[in-house]
Amino acid sequence: MHRDITICEVGPRDGLQNARSTMATADKHRWITALAAAGLPEIEVGSFVRPDLVPQLADTAEVVAEARKLAGIVVVALVPNARGAERAIAAGAHKLTVPVSASRAHSLANVRMEPLQAVEQVRRIVALAREAPARPAVEVGISTAFGCSMQGAVPEDDVVRLAEALAEAGVEDICLSDTVGMANPAQVKRLIARTRAAIGDKLGALHLHDTRGRALANALAGYEAGIRAFDGALAGLGGCPFAPGASGNAVTEDLVWMFEEMGLRTGVDLDGLLAARAILAEALPGETLHGHLHQVKRAA
Questions:
Q1: Which pTM was predicted?
Q2: Integer Cα distance of 32 and 54 in angstroms
Q3: Which of 8, 148, 175, 240 is catalytic?
Q4: What count of other Cβ atoms lies within 10 Å of the Cβ of residue 197?
Q5: Coil, helix or strand for 180?
Q6: In the annotation, is 8 catalytic?
Q7: Which of 246, 251, 270, 282 is the most exposed place for a label (fewest CB within 10 A)?
């Protein structure tokens, strides 16, 4: 299927890591199956982090193995370091995504490494992926690219230099992440242009949070600047437990709704997303769910 826009669903990882309760493994399987049935081409199903730090994702190896049975999706797993990459490769993830923060304060809090130390860790992960029989892809998300609640402003020069170092380290794709939702559309366009000038098409995606209500506006700005791949979380779940004020992600169903109404093909069925949302609401009854499409459909 030709898609004008590719949406990666990050709810089972970024959405659940900040949830107040833990979703049962069987419910995760049901939810991910429904997300795949809705036509999402990529699903970030979990994270290979220490279970004592993020207990909501302790079952990621099992979730990866089950998700691999679903036809037509790329199974993505977040890995913070080489040990996590080894576990993700052993579980069979198709793609590894590695967070590398442009903010020194956030990098130390999130992965306990300086940004340049994290680049060296990425080199090791790329080598592991290339040596693995299945050769999973390696993508890096540059966290706090648009600002940090710990550090404040993050110089654009730092982001561009970090992107250059990561591209040189051999990653296939780089994503700019608005970890705490501080970005604005003008800033999004400017930083995309500067980063693209430095590393070309290796900059392929945006990961946006809606802390200040700007996620859709920033997604549109990203599209106008040439980005065609976006992360979203069903019902806007999510946030980084190691970044104060990092509230929910861009709402997947609202992203799809906006792009489809613009005449851009995502390959994702909105009714299927709402069916997946119902599973999420049932599995996490105490969690606050966000989004406008759900409200419009309910009122119709």
A1: 0.95
A2: 19
A3: 240
A4: 10
A5: coil
A6: no
A7: 282
- How far apart are the C-alpha atoms of 217 and 95, rounded to whole Å? 28
Walking along the chain (300 residues) 10 residues at a time, the average pLDDT comes out as 94 91 96 98 96 93 98 96 96 97 88 86 97 97 94 95 97 96 97 98 97 96 98 88 68 98 98 97 93 87
SS3 category, 233: strand
Token pair for residue 227? 């980005």
Q: Where are the beta strands (DSSP E) in the chain?
A: 6-9, 42-47, 74-78, 95-101, 137-143, 173-178, 203-208, 229-232
What is the CB neighbour count within 10 angstroms for residue 143? 30
Q: Which amino acid is at 275?
A: A
Contact 267, 5 (CB under 8 A): no
H or E element at residue 111: helix 104-111
Which residues on adjacent β-strands are paired with residue 176?
A: 142, 206
Query: CA-to-CA distance for 106 and 88, rounded, in angstroms?
Result: 24
Q: 66 near 85, Cβ under 8 Å?
A: no
